[in-house]
Amino acid sequence: MLISIIYQIKDCLMALGIYINEPIELDNSCRQGMAYQFYISKFLQIIISRSSLHGAFHITTTRNTVLEKYLWGFIMLMAILYSIFLMASFWIRYLTNPTLISLDRNYHEWNTTFPSLTVCFHDRLNTTARDIVIHRLKPENATKFEMFLDLLAETDITNIKQLQEYDEYSHMDINSIVNEIVNHVNNPVTLSNEEESTMHRVITELGICYSFNSAITKYLSVGANGNNLISEKLIEISIMERDTTASLNNLSSNANIYYHGPFEVPTFLKQLIVPYTASTFLQMSFKPVIITADTTIENLYVQQRNCRYPHESNLELFPIFYSHSLCTFECKLKLFLVKCGCVPYLYNLRINIPVCPMRKLACISGNLVKIQQTVASCGCLKDCNFINFMLQSYLLIEWFNNPLIKWDMVVSKVRYSRRIIFDIADLMVSTGGIAALCFGASFITIVEIAFLIVKNTFFPGYNEI
Q: CA distances (Å), 290 to each of 121, 243, 271, 287, 295, in order?
């Protein structure tokens, strides 16, 4: 019985081309069933036996027993599988997380963007402009329309529901009307180095406000030609100019302050509320948080570095410029469209998106909190070059003069930098080292195996089969 089993195993091995010390004779049915398998096994035997792959000789040589061949085959298989596992882990690391964020302390060599502010004045309504609008439009109920305009000038996203009772005015150009009845402020921003800069009139969920040192002003501008605005160069200071301050003098009223980075849309998350009292003097000091990207980072795929540059926009509403804040802003607009079928008039995008009639503002108000919570899961990538500001300290006092706003920045001596820690060279070294350690393979081995496959496939006459 044992001898019969041994001969059966021997016949099977000989049919696979593994044990070929003796010729065998197969019947027609066996020959037809094993012809293709025999050709494949013989082909692989030739490739393996003539390559420089370590351990392959022990599988194909006729000097080893069947048990030894199985043992070497098992060892090689385990080595190959383990090496594939290790190499896959290095490839996954290269494709998903080849960067790190390190500290940079060469503060003498860089400039820092001066803090960006959005200022929303308390005294918004221009009664003279309101009366002109009423006289021009001649509404049927002038008293009700006047109440509507008074509310419209002071409305932001948090109290927008109060306009739902004025649905008869939904057909009007609300953006133009609110721009006309809100006071225009022309006070320049004065820097301590005697330079002056302008504040741009913008409309956001805060209402009509004024923005300073922002790179995305043209997307928030109130005017119809906002997209044609030329982006001004951001104001930057060096460590030698650390005493630079900016001020808004002789203002007509107090104002709430919303501080943000130059690539961010102002929101209620970062604000300093000034009371509706007498004239105040407000002095603020900001501390920057900076993340920069090494020049080599841009050569990586977006999925590798997990951040985007401004010119890599994938946004539908802002196809030319990308920032994380604009991405979340677009996501919020899309959520408004899903929930209510329209967006509030506060978003002056000048594109073909339906603006909510007054009766639907209750839907906007009812879904606002839920949408703001959902925005965090929109999958927006961070900016590769990022700067944000924290309010470090402020002083607010009442005084006898016109309201004055003054701010400065504590120049940081430390910033964060995105750098590549695992590049393509590291990947090749790791992959080659694992292949050489586990089964003695190298680049030459790969070329050699490829050469033998081509040779034995297309020029089999050169080999003895």
A: 29, 19, 20, 10, 16
pLDDT tens per residue, range 213-243: 999 988 888 865 545 454 568 999 988 888 8
Q: Taking the CB of residue 212, how many other CB atoms lie within 10 A of it?
A: 22
Give the C-alpha distances (Å, rounded to integers) separating 171 from 211, 369, 425: 29, 27, 63
**Which residues have CB under 8 Å from 156's CB, separation 6+?**
205, 206, 207, 346
Written in H, E and C, the secondary structure of 26-68 is: CCHHHHHHHHHHHHHHHHHHHHHHHCCCCCCHHHHCCCCCHHH
In the 3-class helix/strand/coil scheme, how is 224-278 assigned residue by residue?
CCHHHCCCCCCCEECHHHCCCEEEECCCCCCEEEEEECCCCCCCCCCEECCCCCC
List the strands of the sheet with 207-212, edge to edge: 200-204, 207-212, 116-121, 255-260, 271-272
Count of CB atoms situated within 10 Å of the CB of 451 = 13
Q: What DSSP designation does 293 have?
A: E
DSSP string for residues in 161-173? GGGTT-GGGTTS-
Q: For the CA atoms of 381, 350, 270, 310, what is the dihedral angle to 10 degrees?
A: 30
Indicate if the alpha-carbon torsion angle 298, 299, 305, 306 is positive or negative: positive
**CA distances from residue 414 to 12, 387, 411, 425 in whole angstroms, order as listed:** 71, 13, 9, 30
CB 123 within 8 A of CB 252: yes
Contact 251, 403 (CB under 8 A): yes
The pLDDT value recorded for residue 285 is: 95
Give me 301's structure tokens. Answer: 């795929």
The per-residue pLDDT for 24 is 45
Q: Tell me the backbone φ, ψ of residue 330, rounded to 5 degrees.
A: -65, -40
Closest CA to 313 of 304, 303, 323: 323
pTM of the model: 0.79
CA gap 420, 384 in Å, rounded? 13
What sign results for the dihedral spanned by CA atoms 188, 245, 324, 337? Answer: negative
Res. 444 pLDDT band, cuts 50 70 90: confident
Q: What whole-number distance in Å separates Cα of residue 284 and Cα of residue 393?
A: 6
Percent of the chain past pLDDT 90, that is, above it, reads 53
| Spatial CA neighbour of 202 closest among 232, 172, 176, 179 | 179
- Residue 387 pLDDT: 93
**What does the pLDDT average to over 19-45?**
52
